[in-house]
Design a protein that fits this description.
Structural class: mainly beta
Largest sheet: 6 strands, mixed
Helix content: under 10%
Shape: globular
Strand order of the largest sheet: 3-5-4-46-43-44
Number of strands: 46
Strand content: 35-45%
């Protein structure tokens, strides 16, 4: 059953639909989260059933509101997460999450070392795949536009078939038998650590290897859509790269600890043309490793790692380049950057930038392991997160919520989160699970101790009555209302004091 309705009040329009969905609306720059309780007819049984619709609202919050970055309680709430390390992740277009690593179970469900999660963090039981030979480790994942999933790692068998370090799965996790590639090497550590999908369905891979499909390829190669080697792309890197990305024009960015590319001197960062030749017009120079990239819509390139200068100018562990490798002087100019290693950088659709790693300050302000920057690189002081350990990768959802992963993460904002968590993007109060029992409607609100919260009720989204004002002493509280059965529809909104 599906129900949808638009409510129009003045200049504010709110779209409601069955289930939980984040929306935004404006009301005098005040910030709310809105929840609806409604009685809707169920045609199959000709009775009334309760339906709860949740909307999160954010409207250009004042600087003093600072809940963005707090753990999202709707993701992995009460779940155990993976039983071992995560190394890679990718978002599907439907919001589901593909994860790879070294785990053998997720939330107590046998899965590994690859799994797919629903939007709430529960295991998607419609997807199942497993390593059946070799080292059970997946280091890279990528989701194709058709929903198929590429996985790279140290394995030599997938779902019972021989697959050397690279395989493609169908949308349900079964093996795509039309894709066959063999990645081999002479050392004990042979893996595909990064994948990049081109718009023409070709696939750039990098890692630790010296041959692909029997042809010499040193640590980087390009494959056709069926797994055959693209012989027109030839490149070699003296050390396995730590980062791989495609520029919007198809050129290939690589970063890491290498010192030569295609036999020519290049330290830490380089750009390859579409045929694998070295782009000699790209002359970025860093004094330390570049370990992560993020390409912005305007074609500028975010880089991060363990450097302190870029092109001879001070940039501490985070910088932005123009497409030709020149330094973007409008980002982090005159700022202190991160005081220690930045392992991952991600572009936020709102125009901001998220960084994660092992640092204690950003631009001279205390930020532990994760921070959000404004478009010019200044610190977004509205974003606060308390993560207890090193962060290894960040994925930003289209709604700007951020998924963070770290091998040793145990808690985020004091809540138990095993290796992985999702952070809120906005400063709106977070409304958690809701329910109705014995005629009493209730919902949880994630709170900041020391802040005052108000709950208001309405039947028309125009006239509101205060039904609760509470001063939070812990990180959540529960609101209850026994009067909802008297109404065919009743809205509640939650606000937070500065």
């Amino acid at each position: 059953m599906f129900y949808g309705q638009d409510w129009q009040t003045g200049t504010r329009k709110i779209s409601l639909s069955l289930g939980y969905r984040n929306q935004r609306f404006e009301e005098n720059l005040k910030i709310f989260s809105l929840i609806e309780w409604a009685m809707l007819p169920c045609s199959a049984r000709s009775v009334w059933v309760p339906v709860v619709v949740l909307l999160g609202a954010l409207v250009r919050p004042p600087v003093s509101l600072a809940q963005a970055g707090f753990v999202d309680p709707s993701f992995l709430s009460g779940m155990t997460g993976p039983n071992s390390w995560l190394w890679a992740g990718a978002l599907q277009s439907d919001g589901k999450l593909i994860l790879g690593g070294q785990f053998t179970s997720f939330n107590g469900v046998p899965r590994g070392p690859v799994a797919r999660l629903n939007v709430d963090g529960s295991v998607d039981t419609n997807f199942s795949a497993s390593v059946t030979a070799g080292e059970p480790t997946i280091h890279s994942v990528a989701v194709q536009p058709d929903g198929k999933v590429l996985v790279g790692g140290m394995f030599t068998g997938m779902n019972g078939a021989t697959r050397f370090r690279l395989a493609r799965l169908n949308a349900d996790g079964t093996l795509d038998t039309k894709f066959v590639a063999t990645v081999t090497g002479s050392g004990s550590f042979i893996t595909v650590s990064d994948l990049a999908l081109q718009s023409n369905s070709q696939i750039v891979i990098s890692g630790s290897f010296d041959a692909v499909n029997g042809s010499p390829r040193t640590n980087i190669a390009r494959l056709n859509s069926n797994g055959t080697l693209d012989s027109t792309f030839v490149a070699g890197i003296d050390t396995p790269p730590n980062a791989l990305a495609l520029q919007l024009d198809g050129r290939v960015l690589i970063g890491g600890a290498f010192s030569s590319v295609n036999g020519q001197a290049r330290d830490h960062i380089a750009c390859l043309n579409t045929n694998g030749s070295l782009d000699t017009n790209f002359l970025a120079i860093t004094d330390g490793n570049v370990d992560t990239f993020a390409i912005q819509p305007d074609r500028t390139v975010l880089i991060a790692g363990n450097f302190s200068t870029v092109n001879g100018q001070s940039r501490h562990r985070i910088a932005r380049l123009n497409p030709n490798g020149s330094l973007d002087g409008s980002f982090q100019n005159g700022m202190a950057g991160a005081d220690d290693y930045v392992a991952c950088v991600a572009y936020d659709p709102s125009g901001k930038v998220l960084i994660g790693g092992q640092f204690a300050t950003v631009n001279g302000v205390a930020r532990t392991n994760v921070a959000r920057l404004n478009p010019n690189g200044s610190l977004d002081t509205n974003f606060l997160a308390n993560v207890d350990s090193f962060i290894e990768f960040i994925l930003v959802q289209p709604d700007s919520r951020a998924i963070i992963e770290g091998s040793y993460i145990n808690t985020v904002d004091g809540r138990s989160r095993n290796h992985i968590a999702r952070l809120q993007s906005s400063s709106a109060p977070i409304i958690g699970p809701s329910s109705i029992s014995a005629g009493v409607f209730s919902f949880d609100v994630a709170a900041i101790p020391g802040k005052t919260y108000g709950v208001e009720a309405s039947t028309n989204l125009a006239n509101w009555t205060v039904v609760l004002s509470t001063h939070a002493t812990v990180d959540n509280f529960t609101f209850q209302d026994a009067s909802v059965p008297q109404f065919s529809r009743r809205f509640f909104r939650v606000s937070k004091s500065p």
